[in-house]
Amino acid sequence: MDELAKEAGITVRTLRFYRERKLIPPPRREGRIAWYDEHHLARLRTIAALLERGHTLGGIADLITAFEHGRDVGELLGLGGLGRLGPDELPQWTEETPVRLTPEDLADYFEGEVTAENLAAALDLGYLATDGDQIVHISRRLLDVSAALVREGVPLAAVLTAGRQVREHADAMAGLFTSLVGTHMAKGPDDLGGALERLRPLAKSVVEAELSMAMDRVLTRPPQGADEGPGDSCPRDGGQPA
After folding, report:
1. Band of residue 176 on the pLDDT scale cut at 50, 70, 90
2. What is the pTM of this model?
3. What is the topology classification, in CATH, of domain 1-52?
């Protein structure tokens, strides 16, 4: 314990306090000897970095608890091994680029928004996975967009809720295009995968164009009540306006 505290730049008293708060895992014991390793040192450095970023010990404890549970969250939520996948184990056909993050990196992306609840929600969605002491985000694009929305003032919890809703619509659109391919493009069951891959850029163009036009309609739609002039009024009793 003395050696670990010295290496981490903290006092033994602080180290004992962290152990009591379960901020670091217990040491490996051989008889009366307790062995600490690089994992414990990395955890202490993470705690120090998060404290420097303004996180409280209570918040850090929640994050660590959620992070530890994240190793098994895939099985708990019926997601198979997803909660433990590293980027090299992600599906080879994906176009998304996974990102490895330390807990400090994640805190920097979403300052003040990395709570145990949000971390659990992101793990549930499959946005995040754990790989050892690191966190893996499955998509650089989703990570950057989520961080940008949070910087614009949208709470991360709301971003994750919207992400779940978008996922449902995206799954429905993928099902529509799969049906289209199976009916008109695929030469047989063995060709379905190849036909879907050929359709992928076309499907993306359709969705992007339709979403763009939908946003145009929202932006050009007059505000509710804007059609009424200052002197307009609703006729009563079926009568005609004067």
Report:
1. very high
2. 0.68
3. Multidrug-efflux Transporter Regulator; Chain: A; Domain 2 (1.10.1660)
